[in-house]
Amino acid sequence: MLKEQPWLNYGDYLDLELLQAVDEGRDVKDIIETVDEIKNMNPLDAKREVLAAAFLDRIQHLQIKKDYRFFEPSELETIKASRPALRPDLNVKLLSEHIEALSYDKIYGAWLGRCAGCLLGQPVEGWYRERINGLLKATGNYPVNYYISSDISGELRKKYDVSDEGGVYGSSIKNWINNVQHMPEDDDTNYTVMGLKILEQYGMAFTPEDVAECWLSNLPILHTCTAERIAYKNIINLIYPPHSASCRNPYREWIGAQIRGDFFGYITPGDPELGAELAWRDASISHVKNGIYGEMFIAAMLSAAALLNDPYKIIECGLSQIPEKSRLSEAVNDVLSWKELGLNWEQAIDRVHKLFDEKTGYHWCHTIPNAVIVCIALIYGEAELEKSIGIAVMAAFDTDCNGATAGSIVGMINGASGLSDKWIKPLNNKLKSGVDGFGLVEISDLARRTVDMAKKAKA
């Protein structure tokens, strides 16, 4: 029998929904008492779920405050109209002429970098910064210089509550480096594989409805989390995109879509606008507003990283594809100034922790603080894999997601040939996927298939 899960019970969404509604600029002062009344009801009372569901529906119709300074549409054409007027001009024709020579090494590097960053962050996912950095310092791994191991003294295991039991996605053990022989399954890599599945099955003209169908056909619901699980549940109940993203979904701006954007950048090298549009089609089934922008931002950065190696310029390409007056754009633009102001990477992370509370689940997994961390990792990591994924994980919040995204972008910049064996060899060129039809696959084969899709995108 399955345990009750908070993302399957409407009554457990209410605090998160309030935080989300406030961030969106909705006026919630008249409904706070209703939340407390519902929360205080017996969790086994069926009426509690009915009232909670009605409340979630009601809050979606609250007006945005007149003094709200952001403009955050979810529709593609309105997003495009809300982008910065001045956008970087990449020489797409130049890339098209050299795609045969350029694509494979870079795309293979992006896949490898994504896996390496994810594997570094996976065993400490959910840990707070003090605990992560305490373990790293105690084991001589701060700043990060290698994957994290559980092969440590009993004293340290007890102090930092390090265990090998309790794996994810059907694994019986946690994926410390001493416990793995390949990249184990993770949602951060499942969705990259899913991107390949979508393109191979539906082609470049795929729709949000195709994405929904592909999920239901190829990914078990318990291999999804938060916004994706809500969207999955909605679609099963015949609530289709885009309403599947907003219906009773307090996770609609969380990081789930942001971790799905990489593949759409892989197949559109040098074309951030197309990468962002493909990402929108994917994101819109489960996310709205900044949740969507996060995926578009990452896809556009990866498209740009095929041509550029300057993290600032790559970030600017990402910003060029999302609304200029969004919360995500404001937060990322703020980060771009921190190094010039004299902040080092640790001080930049300190500032993130002052702006966002890692001990609040809403902040811990929200798109914006995690996108900010990825940008810090890119800027201070200076396009080096070890430095970039290390900073991403040492910053805490969603460690495996941020390590994976930073690693993916740095891998694209450098190509597989430019990545250190220290980080790549432990993967043994293999990735375990939960997507139907893949299983344990060679990462190089995924890269070759991705290159085929990139060529079709440019055809």
From TrEMBL:
The keyword rRNA processing is annotated on this UniProt entry: no
The protein, known as: ADP-ribosylglycohydrolase
Gene Ontology terms, MF aspect: hydrolase activity
The keyword Electron transport is annotated on this UniProt entry: no
Gene3D superfamilies in the cross-refs: ADP-ribosylation/Crystallin J1
Keywords, comma-separated and alphabetical: Hydrolase
Source species of the chain: Ruminiclostridium cellobioparum subsp. termitidis CT1112
